[in-house]
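Page 47, continued from p. 46.
Same chain as before, 340 aa.
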Amino acid sequence: MAALAQQQQRALAMTTDEEGRSALVAAAEAGQVEAMRVVLAHAVDPAAMMMLKDSDGLTAHMLAALGCHVDAMRLLLAHPSADAAAMMTHASSTGHTALMLAAQNGHVDAMRLLLDHPSADAAAMMMLAQLNGGTALMAAAQNGRVDVMRLLLDHPSADAAAMMMHTNSTGCTALMTAALAGHVDAVRLLLDHPSAEAAAMLTIRTPAGTSALTCAAQFAAGWSATRSCATLLLLLLRRVAEESQPSDDAEQAQMTKVMQVLCTGLQSGALFENNQPDDARDECICLLLLMGATSIVPVTAHLVLSRIIHDLAQLARVPYLINEAVVGMAASRKSPRDGA
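Result:
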């Protein structure tokens, strides 16, 4: 009888439900560590069981990472029968790895366990891509997970520059992904990182001609405009002005589009909440004036600029703002070769 019961337990351990989940997969998804121990103890082939997948191609280890069940992950990776390296690099039907699943959900502890594991090839894991070309960094950027992004970029094994310059199947970088989702802090982290090639990152365009700046404009134009929209546009416009100049008609057209979004938001008041101080609005106007004065935008966009200056001419602050823009224009025209 005992032998029969043991056979039944082993058979039960290997069965799957209607969604293709084994008992181990279900227990790992729920973070039930003791249940996982029991299932593994009765498994005929624990190594094979740990690599069983559900209908989405997710293993027990991946589901534990998705839920940030660190103890469950640790149990699986430390099991005597585990192929830890294979478990950490296994990809789902969409190409997601355990690291990507943890990154997109902001599970820093799960990520640390994966990246610092003795069997991990951390550098390779961070550069693995989904079927759409997205990496763990891009998954974090899309969801505004700044702490996750910082962990990845600052990891001792990271090639941070390569990670930031990587493009997915549509040609988007992590910077574009963050900008399109409106994550200001994520954009700032990427541009200010010591390994960032900011000028190159700002000038990269997808095959469709989209840049990080136009991604931000799409976000501002496509959602209910808020202060964060203005902050994001100002941040990128300022960096574009510092790092690069439009080099062709396509880039100039992009700048015109962004300028129009910003001008429209200023005129309607949509980009700024009513209870906000004038500082952000002033900075926006100064930057628009500076853009026109330094030919960062083409002549056709000057019509847009002149209209908003005309509409704002009744404000007593406009002369002050023009003076601020002129000072900024002089500073921007001064080349590093000019010396002090």
